[in-house]
Amino acid sequence: MQLRACTELGAGQINPEFLRSQLEVTTRVCHSVADARADLARLRAIIVDAAREYGLAPIAASTHPFANATQQLPTEKEQFFALAREMQAAARRLMVCGMHVHVGIDDDDLRVDLMNQMSYFVPHLLALSCSSPFWEGELTGLMSFRLTLFSSLPRTGLPERFASYGELRRHLDMLIRTGLIENTGKMWWDVRPNPRYPTLEMRVMDCCTGIDDAVSLAALVVCLVRRLYHLRRANQSWRLYPNVLIAENRWRAMRYSFDEQLLDLARGELVPFSLLMDELIAAVRTDAEQLGCWREIEHLRTILARGTSAHRQIRTYEEARAAGASQREALQAVVDFLVRETASGLHAKTPGGTGQR
Predict the structure, then answer these.
(1) Average pLDDT, the chain
(2) Calpha distance 301→129 (Å, rounded)
(3) Each residue of 326-347: b (16+ CB within 10 Å) or e?
(4) Is 209 strand, coil or helix?
(5) What's the whole-number mean pLDDT along residues 145-163?
(6) Each residue of 174-200: pLDDT tens digit?
(7) Which residues contact 26 (CB under 8 A, 6 or more apart)?
(8) CA atoms within a 13 Å half-sphere pointing along the CA-CB vector of 89
(9) In degrees rounded to 5, what are phi and psi of residue 231?
(10) Residue 147 CB contacts under 8 Å (≥ 6 apart), including other chains
């Protein structure tokens, strides 16, 4: 009943996901960051209000702090049954959610070229979005545990590099022709040319709990793509670095978010994440001003100052434990924080009370 209410009010923008405990929210095609924020806020508010009618509350996070994956029921759709049959235990652990940002690019070859270049920024975007430090009641020690679970599936992680769209298609067509995949939607790279739409899709990010953080990261993705596009028009490009080095930064972002240094691939040395962000924000300033989203880009500094959702979840847990709460009570405090933060800023009433959500 709750899902039916959400899907009806969402007019096709709120849909079931792999597990019945998950919902997928998709904004309309937006022509500005402000439009994206308005649509995302509207959709989140629909879910918050519909859930309240049934004594429930949604959380926007990449993992639930204490829910057990084996107790979740799959959504009764053939595409999800097929995924479960193929992936077996790997699929049964997919109690995870991510945030995907699409940027429209009509030209096939340009999408592939920009995918190659955008791979460099995968660790930065992940570090700023972490929201999955807990798994089944355990503080994992990783700020994005989601990716350790998702990486058990094939065709995930950093994408290969391709010289053209034609080269990419030849590789994908071989996988389809041999029956290894049904369609190109089964390529789950961190960033990819979307198989259904003429977009470049950034997929590495954890699901941001607060709407301000989500919109800020969406703005950063759009500004980065715009910057690379204009470099291309000037017959320039972002330097391509070996995936082995980008993957090292990706791992450090999974483990530490931005608490530890990343490799500056140009300098060949470890540097504070804040320094890399200063350079990145400066690089996209003109694009942000042209797109009318400089305020959202500046919000990245707020994330750095007060922490990601993962930082705040851990802080909530540790404060509760220090105050004498049991482990279960501290985990419940984390859930309550996530409920409040998810509903914040949506012009919807914030749910109260406790209970497993």
Answers:
(1) 91
(2) 13
(3) eeeebbbbbbbbbbbbbbeebe
(4) coil
(5) 92
(6) 999 999 988 888 899 999 999 889 999
(7) 13, 14, 15
(8) 0
(9) -60, -45
(10) 126, 204, 254
pLDDT above 80: residue 310? yes
The model's pLDDT over 311-324, given as tens digits with 9 standing for 90+, comes to: 999 999 999 999 99
How many CA atoms lie less than 13 Å away from 322 in the CB half-sphere? 6
Say how far apart CA 172 and CA 170 lie, in whole Å: 6
Q: Which fold has domain 97-341?
A: Creatine Kinase; Chain A, domain 2 (3.30.590)
Identify any residues that bridge with 123 across adjacent strands, giving them in sequence order: none
Quick one: 37 exposed, middle or buried, by C-beta within 10 A (0-12, 13-18, 19+)?
Answer: buried
Q: How do the domains of the chain map onto residue ranges?
A: 97-341
Rounded CA gap, 351 and 48, in Å?
8
pTM of this prediction?
0.92
- For the chain, the residue count is 357
Tell me the C-alpha distance between 150 and 110, whole Å.
Answer: 28
Please give the Cα distance from 201 to 224 (Å, whole number). 13
Sign of the alpha-carbon torsion through 304, 306, 308, 310? positive
| pLDDT classification of 296: cutoffs 50, 70, 90 | very high
**Looking at residue 319, what is its pLDDT?**
98
Bridge partners for 138 per DSSP: 135
Q: Is 234 exposed, middle or buried (0-12, 13-18, 19+ CB in 10 A)?
A: exposed
Sort 159 into a burial class: Cβ within 10 Å, 0-12 / 13-18 / 19+.
buried
Residue 15 near residue 7, CB atoms below 8 Å: yes
pLDDT by residue (tens digit) across 191-238? 999 988 999 999 999 999 999 999 999 999 999 999 999 999 999 999
